[in-house]
Amino acid sequence: MEKTLNLTATEIGLKLAQKKICPVELTEAYIEKIKGFSEADRIFTTLMAKTALSEAKATRTRINKGVTYSPLDGVPVSWKDLFDTANVQTEAGSALLQNRTPSINANVIQNAKKAGLTSLAKTHMTELAFSGLGVNPITETPPNSIDSKLAPGGSSSGAAVSVALNLVSCSVGSDTGGSVRVPAAWNNLVGFKPTHGQLSLKGVVPLCPKFDTIGPIVKSVEDAANVFSILRSKERVNLEEINLTDKKMAIIETSLLENLDETVKISFDQNIASLIKAGAQISFIRSNIIRDTLKLASTIYSPEAYGTWKHLIEENPSKMHPPVLERFRSGASVDGPEYVKAWQDLEILRQNYITLTDKFDITLAPTTPILPPKTQDLLKNNSYFSERNLLTLRNTRLANLMGLPSLSLPTEINFCGLMLMGKPLQDIQLLSIGKKVESILKR
Predict the structure, then answer these.
(1) Active-site pick, 78, 94, 145, 155
(2) Which of 67, 290, 331, 402 could form a disulfide with 306, with the two C-beta atoms 3.0–4.6 Å apart?
(3) Cα separation values, 434 from 112, 256, 322, Å
């Protein structure tokens, strides 16, 4: 069974449908592996073993009758601990929400259950999802799956680590500024952020509702497409077979390529060379649009985040990790007219970006400009924590600000994701191109 746990979620789903493995035995294997893993409590907030086994038995009955609900029927999934789960504590990594227990499931969990996914566990995350490092001294910090001394990436930290360590087949996180793609990159996984609004946020603990998105952290682009279809309760996505010579890609030589760690730069250059060798048409362009957009981030994000949580934060500020508390409170210094003007500027920049990239199918960038820092270094120095956090999220948050779908792919070098950004609402096209790029990077 251990070899099976190494497979992608889609490969496992196919074996289940073909009756080559039993969904109950599969779920039992995951539960046994989690219980035997010494660091499991740092990754999972809750192991829902009883519920998962019940769901697995229902899948076994269906499959024996020749019925499957989806390509991932019977596949175990973990959920970031901000998705409301009926009768299960959902605390969003925050002491402010201690013992919060919803009575009904989030919409996306309801959709997953209809598709037969087995909900196995809830995963740790950073406080209220407002950090890209994955470090949370208030609850738990999951160990990076490649090097346990390093930050796992966040805010969907446990989600990524649970998949990377083969403790679950796939996971679902949230992405407001990079919280799916950063941990995916730092754990050598695929992370997909759909266009904002494609997936229901009902029953999801908010951070910045104007930017919050839901996305899968998985082992392949095909997995991402299948989970995406299930979460939005649509028919299975059939990814188009792409010829790279027909697609135009752009690299915008401004902020996203500045101050790169040397290893990240080497990885990115190698990936671009591989794509060009495979026939991709890649153009290098320059524009101030990216820099001007990124400058708006603090004026737009922090006021919405603080406005969402001020009532609870100020009742018990001592319950929060200081640099996270400071980031929330920075929203108080932005006045109404400044916030409105920033949004007006952003809308103009979005239109300018669409014009700039109109003739390109996707744009490319490193997922993160830096490698994961050591967790202990981040905990020792709050200023270092804040500085590394902002730099970690610099590249990914562009897609959130611009309202773009975005995909992070693992590369040959650990921690170095390649980020693809598509056009608004063209999520399936992005995934199709991503699958082709994935095949080239794996050669």
Answers:
(1) 155
(2) 331
(3) 23, 19, 38
Catalytic residue status for 80: yes
The Cα 436–Cα 429 span in angstroms is: 11
d(CA 127, CA 17): 38
Let me know if 193 is a catalytic residue. Answer: no
Nearest CA to 406 out of 184, 257, 244 is that of 184
Q: What is the DSSP letter of 401?
A: H
Q: Order across the sheet with 406-409: list the strands.
A: 44-47, 118-123, 76-80, 170-175, 213-218, 190-193, 406-409, 418-421, 362-366, 248-252, 281-285
Q: What is d(CA 381, CA 262) in angstroms, rounded to the nearest whole number?
A: 24
Q: How confident is the model at residue 54 (pLDDT cuts 50, 70, 90)?
A: very high
What is the rounded distance in angstroms from the CA atom of residue 295 to the CA atom of residue 245?
A: 35
Q: Out of 15, 80, 193, 435, which one is annotated catalytic?
A: 80
Q: Is 156 a catalytic residue?
A: no
The distance from CA 424 to its chain's CA centroid, rounded to whole angstroms, is: 18
Nearest to 400 by CA among 154, 216, 208: 208
Residues 65-72: what's their mean pLDDT?
96
Is the pLDDT at 443 greater than 80, yes or no? no
* Secondary structure E strands in 81-196: 118-123, 170-175, 190-193
Partners of 216 in the β-ladder: 172
Q: Is the pTM of this model over 0.85?
A: yes
Q: Tokens in use for 41?
A: 């409590």
Q: With contact defined as beta carbons under 8 Å apart, do 359 and 173 qualify?
A: no
